[in-house]
């Protein structure tokens, strides 16, 4: 006579089944790590790398576009002793939306959202 498969010979009671589900959910909750986004430095680096891959004419046009940004004077003012102004500006643009989130007006509107 052949032995029945192990799964067929063991029957879980409802309490055991519930315990198995709870242990699985608890294990999942305890082992899941939060997703961490890029930091300011990560956004800056990726923007600069992309800028460096552009043709000189494209780089010039991008700088012209950024210089016409309505908050360019306030949000893109370089720090003292910036070695490469274009790289600094492009890097700043790479994470500017995150900066602007901290600049919400009195009505609760984020300054980069157009209504």
Helical stretch tally:
6
- Look at the helices and sheets and give the structural class: mainly alpha
Catalogue the unreliable spans.
Answer: none
Shape: rod-shaped
SSE pattern: HHHHHH
Strand tally: 0
Helix percent reads 55-70%
Residue fraction in strands: under 5%
Spatial separation of the terminal alpha carbons:
77 Å
How would you characterize the largest beta sheet?
none
Verbal overview:
This protein is mostly helical. The protein has six helices and no strands.
Helix-strand blueprint:
Elements: H1 6-9, H2 14-31, H3 40-52, H4 56-67, H5 72-75, H6 85-101
Helix pairs in contact: 3-6
What would a concise description of this structure say?
This protein is mainly alpha-helical. The chain contains six helices and no strands. The radius of gyration is 27 Å and the shape is rod-shaped.
Offer a few descriptive terms.
115 residues; mainly alpha; 6 helices; 0% strand; rod-shaped
């Amino acid at each position: 006579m052949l032995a029945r498969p192990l799964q067929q010979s063991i029957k879980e009671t409802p309490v055991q089944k519930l315990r198995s589900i709870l242990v699985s959910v608890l294990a999942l909750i305890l082992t899941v790590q939060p997703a961490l986004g890029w930091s300011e430095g990560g956004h800056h680096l990726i923007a600069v790398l992309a800028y460096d891959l552009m043709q000189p004419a494209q780089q010039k046009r991008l700088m012209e576009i950024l210089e016409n940004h309505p908050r360019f004077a306030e949000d893109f003012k370089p720090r003292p002793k910036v070695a490469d102004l274009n790289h600094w500006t492009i890097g700043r643009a790479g994470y500017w939306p995150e900066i602007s989130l901290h600049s919400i007006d009195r009505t609760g509107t984020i300054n980069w959202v157009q209504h």
